[in-house]
Each structure stands twice: as C-alpha cells, then as structure tokens.
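Students often ask what a holo structure prediction actually looks like on paper. The answer is less mysterious than it sounds. You provide the chain, you provide the ligand, and the output is a string of discrete structure tokens encoding the 3D arrangement of the protein together with adenosine-5'-diphosphate.
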Amino acid sequence: MDADDSRAPKGSLRKFLEHLSGAGKAIGVLTSGGDAQGMNAAVRAVVRMGIYVGAKVYFIYEGYQGMVDGGSNIAEADWESVSSILQVGGTIIGSARCQAFRTREGRLKAACNLLQRGITNLCVIGGDGSLTGANLFRKEWSGLLEELARNGQIDKEAVQKYAYLNVVGMVGSIDNDFCGTDMTIGTDSALHRIIEVVDAIMTTAQSHQRTFVLEVMGRHCGYLALVSALACGADWVFLPESPPEEGWEEQMCVKLSENRARKKRLNIIIVAEGAIDTQNKPITSEKIKELVVTQLGYDTRVTILGHVQRGGTPSAFDRILASRMGVEAVIALLEATPDTPACVVSLNGNHAVRLPLMECVQMTQDVQKAMDERRFQDAVRLRGRSFAGNLNTYKRLAIKLPDDQIPKTNCNVAVINVGAPAAGMNAAVRSAVRVGIADGHRMLAIYDGFDGFAKGQIKEIGWTDVGGWTGQGGSILGTKRVLPGKYLEEIATQMRTHSINALLIIGGFETCDRIKQSASGTKRRVFIIETMGGYCGYLANMGGLAAGADAAYIFEEPFDIRDLQSNVEHLTEKMKTTIQRGLVLRNESCSENYTTDFIYQLYSEEGKGVFDCRKNVLGHMQQGGAPSPFDRNFGTKISARAMEWITAKLKEARGRGKKFTTDDSICVLGISKRNVIFQPVAELKKQTDFEHRIPKEQWWLKLRPLMKILAKYKASYDVSDSGQLEHVQPWSV
Ligand code: ADP
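The corresponding structure tokens follow.
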C-alpha cells in the first residue's frame, strides 16, 4: 500500500520495469459483437494499466464501425474517463455489428484511421466473430499499409514505423461459447440473472402445481442452460451439444409424473435457445410445453428470458475476471513481437493464461461442425473438460436409477456440516448424498455439527430428502462452531454404533461471492467497510478488486502508520480530481490495534474539510442470502468429486478386513491453480498457519498489486506467471 512498495519481490520489480514500458506506444480498445456485463471492467483495466505503463490508450467507440468511420469515434482515454464504470452493465464505449469491417475496403479505412493516431496495438473485447475479424486484420496489416502508401495516404516511413499490428483478445460473451477459456466475461452475471428468475419462479410456483419451461440464451452453446440446471436442480435440461436420446418425450413425461407422485409441486425444465434433437431438429420451449400439456395435462408455463440475461450489474466474479484479463492483455501487447501470434487472454482454473487466438477460434468452430455432423460426443469433448464434467454431474444428480439397478456397497457414509454456515453448503450436501446413493452407499446425515455427532443426531438421508436444496442459504443440516476435540470419545462411539465407513466434512468454505459493494452517488466521501474472514483477507482483497477500492487492509500483508498516512494522502489527492469518492476495505482481523473504528476516526480527522467518512461493518449478512450460482456449482461439483474419491477409497479397502486410515485417506479437496486436487491432511498441516487458520501461501495475494495499480498507486506487478503462450487442448481446458 505504500508508494514504493518495499515488500514487493525485487526480482519481479526488475522484470516489471524491463518488460513493461509502454512509452511511445498507443493501444486501441474496443468492444464488439453482443454486449456482456463486465466489459466495462475490462475496458477500465486496459485503460488504467496502459496509462500506468506509460502508453497512450484510445477508446474506439461502436466496435469496428467506429474504427472504420474514424473521427471522433477514436478518442484518447484518461484515468478518470473510466471512473465509476466497474459496476455498470453493458459497455460504455458502445458495441456494434459492422458489415464494412468484413470487407477489405472497410479494413483499409480502419487501418488508415488507426495509423493517424499511431495505434499499432489493439485490444478487442468480443465474441469469436469479433476475434476472427481482429486476426484477419492483423494478417492483412502489412498489405493494407502498402496499399495506403500506394494511394498516397501514408508515407514510406510510416509503413516501416508501424509495420506490425499487435492484437490481443478478451472474450466477452454471456454464452461462454468460446473454447480455450473456462469462463468468458459476462457468463457469471448472466447466470446470476437466470438464477434470480428461477428463485423467483420457485416461490410463486410453490403455491400451485406447475411445470415451468425456462428458455435461456445460447444458440450454439448449452453452457448457460447446463450450469443453471445444475445450480437450481432442474428436472430436465436440453442442450445443443448433447441432445436427448430418442424416446426422450416419454422418458421426460415419466420423470415429471414421478415427481408429481412424490408430491413435488414444481417441475423445472431448462432449454437452451439452440437445443436440438439427435436429428438436428430444434427442440423449442413451445414444443416441450405442448408435449407436457397433451401427455400429462399439467399446467405448464413458458418463460423466455431473452435480454434480461445481458442486463443488470456485473457480478463480483465478472469484475475480477475482466480486471485481471485487462491487465494481462496490456502486458501481452507490450511483450508481443512480430512472431507472436495474436492471443486471447483466458482463464484456466484460477489462472490467467494466454492462448493463440486462432487455435481457440478454430476449436470453437469445430464444436459447431461436430454438432452439424451429429458427432455429439465430439462436441462435448471439444467444449472442454469442465463442460463435460458439468454434464456428467448434472446427469448423476438429476436422474436416480431404480434401486434394483444400483449395486450396493454395504458402506455407510456420513455427511456433516461444520464451522460457520456458508452459501453453497446445502448444494454440497445434496450432491454428496445423491452421488453417494448412486454409488451404492447408505447415506447418513449428521445434524448440528460435531456437537450433534457426539450426541448421536444421525439419520439416514434419501435422494428426495435433498430435493430443492441447491438454492437455499445457510446450512439445513445445522452447524455449530465447536471443535471435535472434547468429543472425540463420543464421536468414536457413534461411528461404531452407526458403522460409519467414511465421513465427508463440509465446512470452512468462505462465501466467495457475496460481497459487492458499490459506493457511488455521494461526493467527497470515503466508505470504510469491514469484511469477515477471520485472519483470511480473501474477501477484503477480492471485494476490493471487484469494487475498485483504494485500499484493502489484510492480515497477510502487514501495514503500519506510514501506510495509513500514504492512503489518506492518496485519498486527499483523489478528491481534487473529478472522482470524489473513496472505498477502503478492512478485514476484521487485519490488525489488533488498527481497528475499523480507529481507521474511521483517523480518516475522519485527517480528511477534515476534504472528505467525510462512513463506516459499515458487513457482519453476518455476508453469510446470508441465497447462494450465488458460483457457490452452488462449486459446492455441487466439489462435493461430487469428494464422494467419488470416497467411493474409490472404500473400494480399495474392501476385502482387507479391518480398515485402518492411512495418511492419504484423510484429504481436503480444493482448487489449486488449474486443478481440483486432493491433498492429504498430513501434507496440508505443513502448509497451514494454525494459529490464524489460514494457508501459509495464498494464491490470491499476487492479485494485490492489481488493485493498487488500478487505484493509481505505484506498485509492482509480478509478471512471473504471465507471458507464456500455451496451446489449447480440449482435455485440459
Ligand atoms: P461476436 O463477436 O459476438 O461473435 P459477430 O460474429 O456478430 O459477434 O461479430 C461482430 C463483428 O465482428 C461483426 O459485425 C464484424 O464487424 C466483425 N467480424 C466478424 N467476423 C468477421 C470476419 N470473418 N471478418 C471480418 N470481420 C468480422
């Protein structure tokens, strides 16, 4: 937080300076094709990072149309022109479809307009169409320059000086229809909109017995449909990549009528806009409704979500994703050489990587080709590992095989919630219970955490008992913040009494996605917000990045009075600009003495006459509310994986008589960099700071400089894990 950031690793500082001088360079940024929430965060990051490294940054308004038309459509951006846009949906620089850019003549004009401003670096935020256009433009660049020279529009010197065009893409698309990235900008926000609607429908529909058919966007890609189906536990889902088997009409009706027989009042069917059957014929929401009405006579309603999905404020996830991608895009441009191919910045696990643009576009087109040729298994495989994983999980959780078709393992597996209730816990329990039953185990639920465990509050839990759990906040099983230490004897007795072979403990999640603070409106005011997390500064840090905070005080990065002073001075300076607002986040345990009150009073005193302060302790609202789509899916998926692991371990141990636990039979499952991994507790112990209940190394700490740079502090950004160009492989993305 201090101006020269003495805590930054010196090596990376050197690398930072060597690599990242943008002096003398000009970067153009545009948004093209369909708009998506989070595009503004990407624009803001490109502008600020570009200015930060000393480059000039130009807005290109109205997508490629503005590039072709030139004039006032290409205007230099300054630091303040991207203030207060982080929380705004859509794109403030406009987007358009542009026929002219599809022609060489149009691209010739565009090149001329860029050259007039010395722009040879382009940052394109759009879908695969926009990125294809950008790649073509780059390939043609030298030819276009020669033609402009022949026409006398530029001189020979300019041809030499501006010989290369660097292009970097960021995928802005709510459909998540682009191969090579786990998430595109806008997808998570679109999921939020869909889930809000489903939650709303669920409350009204409970009053009647109804079937809802919900159509979501995705003409060629079923991602939104699939993930919303997972997140709300839909009864049936229709996707373009994975059409239902022949005879699906009857199967679906059987499933719906079984639900009714079990007194389930509500059926939800989710349909992707582009859903098809195995003969490539469209399956429309109307067709599904007709089927349900004629076959079953149920009261059936169709809701087509349409543009609502593009609207509203971007989610915290999209803001962070787009900010990271924007910064990475600028680094990619500055590091580009004539030999580096145009690239896209993408997300792999929680890692930002660069991929060759055309390989991604090619693979995206290959998915379409596979669907057109009815090679549906290929289509799913090409969509990537996480798509296939989602589909698999959905199928396992939605449809229960008849009991007599499930081979029994004679194992009892118990599920318990511990620690603070967190959004997504119920989704995790539902998933564990259903996967466990499908794997042939008898599933037991333990109520009220370790306390309840010791007292024997243990009951068998069935498939339908967990119906509708995904969307509910808190912990339905109940949880208590007691440690098992003093109950070990009783717990051991209960394990014996109930013959528990394996135990799945769900707890310790932090609610990743609940904090969204935006403090716009009032002038000359600094908001000081206290976030939860114990000693873990994740929420304060990521909340800070998502909300564009000026500082975030966390335990992991010690701070002193000089840091506080430099932050106050920074805010005083900021009040002189047109951005007269400040936001400061403070993790609840970041410092014993610099409490939220202390910081509030210090800022109030020092800011007298310049700004005033408000403080807000977020407290338990961070744990409340309905879980976000991310938390629901994360809970669902990770728990399914955990159960699969337990099943494998139980199989290994079978037939060996008395079972003893080994080091690797007690594991914690989590995402590390790009992969979901199981870590033996013994190993994890070495990596944990038990006193403060946090890992010794936290991946997100490397994102701290990002927040500072985007808030105009001088900070160094460790580029050590950016800069490598990777290749797309369907099985690794
Ligand atoms: P998206 O980027 O969301 O896929 P489109 O496919 O409509 O949206 O593309 C947006 C714009 O990108 C088009 O209007 C056009 O200007 C440009 N574009 C798309 N494909 C090409 C192409 N093959 N060549 C040149 N420009 C293209």
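The chain is about 40% helix and 15% strand.
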